[in-house]
Design a protein that fits this description.
Elements (H helix, E strand, L loop, with lengths): L1 E3 L25 E10 L2 E7 L3 E5 L6 H15 L4 H4 L19 E10 L5 E10 L3 E9 L2 E7 L7 E7 L6 E7 L4 H8 L5 H17 L2 E3 L11 E2 L12 H8 L4 H14 L6 E6 L4 E9 L2 E4 L5 H14 L20 E5 L8 H16 L3 E7 L12 E4 L3
Parallel strand pairs: 1-18, 4-17, 4-18, 11-16, 16-17
Antiparallel strand pairs: 2-3, 2-5, 5-6, 6-7, 7-8, 8-9, 9-10, 12-14, 13-14, 14-15
Length: 395
């Protein structure tokens, strides 16, 4: 599937009308649309997200920006403060955006999460100047606004929130902090005594579960070549500690490790019979390829493309228990989906490695426990592939 997107200016989008399409919804909550109403170079942009999505286009078209916005929503959904998520908020303000009479400028992002509750929309307005704060938020489903917040008094560090109750009073009103996502706070604020409150809770929990468990991954071959100290065995976003992770995972699941070896064999030059890590006397561990006949190759001798391919394959075969992510611990793993965000997904990969990685990603994403959103300069090599959504941002 190929989608072309443009970005003119817009306001906070309205709550949608009921879809009424009668289709089933996934058991595992997942983000199915990313909206950048006004964010950096994007205006009124809506991007469909499938299990395997590739943002494509030349440098400067906004691929990295889209992934950055997704990661920001994920962190806000996990409860992070807005200043932690946006250390340079002015960079997120749309190009040529002018300040109002109070010198205020900001940006707007949002998403849709599908799941057992049906499509749930989240739209967030963030003020970047003069003070960074969340000034508006709306959670809605089937045309019904479940949560709405607005900044009433700029002198206070709160927003006025109103959420659906459908009891003796149609809504409940209360102040919420202006530095946190209200949707993530609702499970602590809503009693769940009425049908309306229970609907609000279910929608908020679906959104939070869909947003959390995001792993931003950009393997750095230069840091994967040297031995590393043993640690938690959880893979970092740059895959610097790949050897430590292999030291842990090789013995945890022999079947999964065998699949990883087969994938590495398909993408690396020369024979590969095994992939493992060995401890060194100084307390570090290094990774090696077993070439057979007693020949071993240190990962430090592999090319950049081989190392990136190996690291990305490892990410696709593992999960929240191995990757350095913040999963929703109160939700059973069977109901969670890990989303991998991979900027410059194809950097350094040759055509064979790209093909093999795409085939592996499509197979793993089809199982439903993992989703991949990547950015590539040219997706022609993936065009027509089953299960791949290509979002073309070419101007």
């Amino acid at each position: 599937m190929t989608v072309s997107c443009t970005s003119p200016a817009s306001a906070l989008p309205p709550a949608p009308a009921p879809p009424g399409d009668g289709r089933g919804h996934p058991d595992r909550p997942c983000v199915t649309e990313l909206r950048l109403s006004a964010f950096a170079g994007h205006r009124r942009a809506g991007f469909p997200l499938g299990p395997l999505t590739l943002f494509a286009g030349p440098s400067g078209c906004g691929k990295t920006t889209a992934l950055r916005a997704y990661e920001a929503l994920a962190r806000l959904g996990g409860g992070a403060a807005v200043d932690e998520v946006f250390p340079d908020p002015a960079a997120c303000v749309p190009d040529r955006a002018r300040a109002d009479a109070q010198r205020r400028r900001g940006f707007r992002i949002g998403c849709t999460a599908d799941g057992p509750e049906g499509p749930v929309r989240l739209d967030v307005a963030i003020q970047a100047e003069p003070d960074l704060r969340i000034v508006g938020e709306r959670l809605s489903t089937d045309g019904l606004v479940l949560l709405q917040t607005a900044l009433r008094d700029p002198a206070r560090r709160t927003v006025q929130a109103a959420w659906h109750t459908a009891g003796s009073a149609p809504v409940t009103r209360a102040p919420l902090p202006d530095d946190r996502l209200g949707t993530a706070l609702l499970p602590l604020r809503v009693a769940g005594k009425t049908d309306g409150q229970r609907r609000v809770l279910a929608a908020a929990e679906q959104m939070v579960v869909a947003l959390r468990s995001v792993f931003a991954c950009d393997p750095r071959p230069g840091r994967m070549r040297t031995p590393v100290p043993t640690g938690s065995g959880r893979l970092l976003g740059g895959c610097d500690n790949l050897a430590d992770v292999l030291w842990r995972t090789r013995a945890e699941c022999t079947r999964r490790h065998a699949q990883l070896v087969a994938a590495v064999r398909a993408g690396c030059t020369g024979p590969v019979t095994d992939l493992y890590a060995e401890p060194l006397p100084d307390g570090t561990v290094r990774a090696l390829l077993d070439r057979g006949d007693g020949i071993r190759t240190r990962l430090g001798r592999l090319g950049d493309g081989e190392l990136r391919y190996l690291a990305l394959a490892l990410v696709l075969f593992t999960g929240p228990g191995v990757l350095e992510v913040d999963p929703a611990g109160e939700v059973p793993a069977a109901l969670q989906t890990l989303t991998v965000l991979a900027d410059n997904l194809d950097r350094g990969l040759d055509p064979r490695q790209r093909t093999e990685l795409l085939r592996l990603a499509a197979r793993m994403c089809d199982r439903g426990h993992i989703r991949l959103v990547g950015a590539v300069s040219d997706a022609s090599w993936a065009a027509g592939s089953t299960g791949v959504t290509v979002v073309d941002l070419t101007p």
